[in-house]
Amino acid sequence: MSRHVVARVDEIAPGSCKIVTVKGREIGVFHVNDEFFAIINRCPHQGAQLCRGVLVSRLESPAPGEYKLTRQGEMLRCPWHCWEFDIRTGQSWCDPSSVQARTYAVEVEPGAVLAKGPFEAETVPVAVEHDYVVLTV
Amino acid sequence: MAEAVQALSGDFIDCDVHLNVPSTRTLLPYLDDYWREHLIRRGIEGESHDLSAYPQNAPLNCRPDWRPTQGLPASKFEHLRDHVLNPFQPRFVICNVLHGSQIMFSEDLSAAMCKAVNNWVVAEWLDRDPRLRASIVVPVHSPDLAVAEIERRASDRRFVQVLMFSLTELPLGRRQHWPIYDAAQRHGLPIGIHAGSSFRHPPSALGWPSYYIEDYVSQAPGFAATVNSLVTEGVFVKFPRLKVVLIESGVTWLPAYLWRINKTWRGVRAETPWLDRSPSEIIRDHVRLTIQPFDDPPEQSQTQTIIDEIGSDEMLLFSTDYPHWHFEGTDAIPAGLPKTLLPKVLLDNALATYQRLN
Amino acid sequence: MNVAVLDRKPEAVSRTHMGFIDCDVHPFYKSPAEFDEFLSARWREHRRTIGGRVRQGLAKSSNYPRMSPGNGQRMDSWPPDGTHPGSDLPFLQKQLLDLFDVAYGLLAPLVGGAAGERNVEFGSAMATAVNEWQLARWSDPDPRLKAAVQINIEHQSAAIAEIEKRAGDRRFCQVQIPPRGLEPLGRRRYWPILEACAANGFPVSLHLGGTSGHPSTGGGWPSFYHEEHPSYAQSMQTLVVSLVCEGVFEHIPNLHVVLVEGGFAWAPALCWRLDKAWKRLHAEVPFLRQKPSDYVRQNIWFTTQPIEEPERSQDMLSTIQWIGPERIMFSTDYPHWDQDDPRFAFKVPLPDEWRRKIYHENARALYDFD
Question: Which segments within chain C are labelled E, that is strand?
Answer without folding.
Answer: 21-25, 104-107, 145-150, 172-177, 204-207, 257-260, 300-303, 328-329
